[in-house]
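Hey, can you fold this one?
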Amino acid sequence: MGDEGEQHAGGCGRPGTRRRWVAALVPGLVSMLVSMLAAALVSLAGPAATAVAAPGRLAAGTAPSYLTAVAAPSYLTAVQRIAVGPEPDGTPVTLDTTIYAPAGAGGSTARHPAVLLAHGLGGSKADLEDAAVLLVGEGFVVLTYSARGFGASSGRVHLDDPAFEVADAQRLVDTLAARPDVQLDGPKDPRVAVVGGSYGGALALMLAATDPRIDADVASITWHDLADALFPQSASASSADSSSGATPGPFKQLWGARFFAGALGGSPSGSPSPGDGASPSTNPSATPAAGAAARAAASGAALCGRYDPTVCRLMVTAMERGTPDQALLDLLRRHSPAPLLGRLTAPTLLVQGQTDTLFGLDQADATARALTAAGTTVAVRWTDGGHDAPSTTADADEQATVDWLRHFLVDSPGRRGAARPGPAFSYTLPLPRGASTTPLATSDRYPGLTASGTTLPISGAGGQVVTPPGGQPASVTTVPGLGTAAASLPTYPLAALPGSSIAFTTSAVQAKTLVVGSPRVRLRVRSSGTQVTLYATLWQVRGGNVTRPRSLVAPLRVTIPAGQTREVTVALPPGTYDLAAGTSWRVLLTTTDSAFANPRDVRLDQVSLAATQLELPTLPVPRAAAAPLDRESLGVAIAIGAALLGLLGLGAWRRHRRRALHRRDDLADVPLVVEDLVKTYKDGHRAVDDVSWRAERGQVVGLLGPNGAGKTTTIRMMLGLIRPDSGHVYVLGEPVGPGSAVLGRVGALVEGPGFLPHLSGRANLHAYWEATGRPDEEAAFEDAYAVAALGGALDRPVRTYSQGMRQRLGIAQAMLGKPELLFLDEPTNGLDPPQIAAMRPILQDYAATGRTVVVSSHLLGEVEQTCSHVVVMHAGRVVAAGAVADLLSSDDVTVLDLDAAEDPAPLAEALRAVPGVEAVEIAPPSVDRTGARVTVRATLSRADVVRAAVGQGAEIVAVAGHRHLEEVFLRYIEQAHASDADQSASLSERLRQVRAR
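Sure. Predicted structure:
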C-alpha cells in the first residue's frame, strides 16, 4: 500500500458521461493516425525524430465500450501510489491508482465485492473514470490504475509481461484484500473480478489465469496470441492457434507502428519518470567511458520512449524488416493469454468486435476454445464495433458486463460451475438499412468460427498474379483505425489492381442466407519464389454493384518449394453476413495490401481453386432481440410520410393541371414550339423572361447566348425537368411537363453524359434502352455504334474512357431509337477537331431525314457550319432568331480583311466620312487571319465601298459580302446591353458580370 492517499467526495449523478465518452472516440481516432505517423518517422529518422512523440490511445478511451457511466449514487475516491516490483535494473516502480468506494463504505463494517479495471495501450487510469463510476454505483469497490510505463506510473512498458504487468496486477489484488470495505472469501483472498479492454483485456485474462483469487473476468477486443495477431496466418490451420507451427503471416505494418507508438512520449529523452530513481547518466561523477555508454543508452531510450529496451529492439527490427525473428515471436507469445489459459478457472466473458482490423474474432475464438477445453465457464459476445469503430449496442454490452459481474460476485459467489447469467453466444446481425442500432441474436452454444453449415458453388479460371518490385503499388482494401470514417474510401478498383489480383465468384444465393463465422475456400498455389503471400477479402456482388460488407483482410503466407504446388484452406474474414437472394460472393486475392508489410521481391504466383465449393458456417434461425425504439428514425419516418402525402397532393394537382393543357392539333406536325416561357428563381433572379420560338422539321437549331442567358434553364423546361412559372412547351402538339408521354419521342444529352463506369459502352447503351421498355428492334443499335465511333473500345468498361469517348457515347445514347427531336447541350465538349468535324455531317444528315436537332453551344464557328437556324438569347430573352444564311448575309454590309501590317484605325476614320456609310466596325486579328477586319454598313454598293477603301491606300487581302456568326452574335448582344441602364462597363466586362444560371 502506498502512503499518498487522498479522500474525495464523488458527485451523485453523471447523466452526460455516456455522450462525452462516445464523443471522445473521434479525437481518439485522430490521435491514432498521428501516432502512426510518429512511429513511421521514428523508424525512418532515428533517435532525433522522437522528441515530439506523445502517448497515443490504442483503443479510444480504452475503457471497454460496454462500460459507459450513467447516474450513480454518491461515492468516495482515494488516490494512492502503490509500490510494485522493480525494473530489471533495480529501478523502483510505483503505480498511480484510484479507489472508488460506495459512499459510507470506509466508515462502516459493510464489505463489497471489488472490480479491478485495466486500460488500453497508451492510456491511463483517467480513461477508466466513467466505467468506475458506473460500477461503484452498482455496489462494487473499484480500483483503477495506470499500468507500468503509462500515465503518472513509473517503470517501462513490457507488453503485459507475466513477470511485470501481470505481477503488478497481483499486487493490486493484495491491495484490495487489505481494504476493510472489500469482501473476502478467505485470508488475503478478496472477492474480485478483473475487467479490461485491448491491452487491459489481455491483462485481465492473464491475471485470472495466474491468480486463483480472481472470481470472474471480462476481456474485450483483445488478443489470444500477440504473435499471431500481429503476424496473422489465415491458411490451413486457425490463425489463432499458436501451436500449429504455421509460417508467420504478413506483418500488420500500420497497426504494428501504432502499437509501438502507443508507449512513445512521456520523457522524450528516455529519462525515467518520477519515482524511477536517479539515472546513471545524470551522475556527475561518472567516468568518460561510463558517460559514453550512458549517452548510447540515452539514444536508444529516445527511440524507445517508455518501452523496455528488449521489447523495443525486437519490435523495431520487425518493423524495419517486415518479418519477425524467432526471439520476437517467442516474446510476444509469452506475453499472451494463450500459454496460460489452461489454468484459468474464473468464469470469463469475451467481448470481441466485428469491426476490428487489429484483434479480430479469431483471437476471441481461440481463447474461447481453450477455456472450453479447460472446463471454464465462458460466454462469447460479438459486437459490431472494435478498434476501428464504436459499437452501436454499447448499452446492451454494458448491461451484459454488469450482469456477469453481479452474477459471479454477488448472486452465485464462489460457485465456479454456476450457470451463466445469459446466453453462451450473442452476436450482432448486419445493420438494417435506416437503423442506428444493430439487432442482437443469441444462441445456447458458441459454435466457433468454422461451424458446419452449407456450401455455395464458386468458380473462376485462376491465373497468374505478380508481386510488383518493392511491393508497390499496393492494393487498398482497408484503412486500419479509421473504421466508419473510411468505410467508403477503399473501393473494388483500388483493391483489385490489374495483374496483382485475381477473383473467384460464387453463384447467386437462391434465398436469404445468414452466415455466422468464417467462410472457407480451398486454393491451389505455386510460386516462382519460395513463399506465396496473398491477401483475401470478401465482396458482395448484386445487380452489378460490388460492395464489401466487412472492412477486414485475411492474409496468408505459405512456404513452398519453388515450382511446386500446394493446396491450402483459407479462413476468410469472420463475422455475420446477411446475403439477400440473388447476391453472389466474390473472393478477391491480392499480392499486396497497403496495411501490411508486403514482400519486396518480384514474384510470379499461380492461383487456382482446389475445390469448387465455398464453405459457409451457419446457425439455426437466431432468436433476435427486439431492437430499441429508434426515436430519431421514427421522427424521420413521420417526416417522410408527411412529405409523401404532400407529394401525392402535389402530383394530383399537377395531373389536373396537365389535363387542363390540351393537345394542340394545329401544332401536331411541329417538332417544338416554345410559348411565353418565364422562370424566376427564389432569390428573385428571372432566368427566362417571356421566351418564344419554334423549330421545324429538318432544322438544326443553334441555341446561343453568353453564360447566364437562360439557355440551360430553357432546355430544362423544354425537357420537362423543371416547370415554368408561366408559358408552355409543345412537342408535336403535346404539352410538355414532368413525365409527359411525348418525351419518349425526344432524345437528350444535357450537362454531360452519365454512365455506369463498370459496364462497357455497349452494355451501357443496352441498359439505357432496356430501361425505356421498348423493343430492341426500335433501338437502331448499329447506327448508335457508328455515331459513337469507339471501335474495339465499345466493349471496354466506361471507366477507362477519355472525356471525348464518353461524349461520343453520350451523343449515341441520345440518338438511340432515332427520336424525332434531339437536344444536345455542348455536344463538342471533349472532342478534338477531327471528331468535331466528323460530328457535323452526322447531325445535318440526321435532320435531313425529317427530324429536328437543337444544339446549345459556345463554339460559334461550329454552329455557323452545322446549324441551319439559330436562336440568340441574352439576359433571359430572345434577341434574335432566324436562318443562319439570313443573319449572316446582307447587301448593305461589306467585310474587308486587311494586311497584317495595316493599321485599321485611319481607314475606319476615313470611311466614316464617306457619304452613304452608316457604320464602321473594327475586329482585331484572330486565329484564322493575321490582319484586322473592317466591317462597313452602307447604302453604297459593295464595289463603291471597296473603291473608297483602296483610295485611302488600304492593303486589302480579302472582301466578303457576309459576316461571321461571331460578329452577328456580338452585335446582337451589344445592342441588348445598350438597352440596359448600366452603360459604364465595357462589353467584355459586362459579359463577365452576367449572372450564371
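The CA atoms of residues 701 and 854 lie 5 Å apart. Let me know if you want another pass with a different chain boundary.
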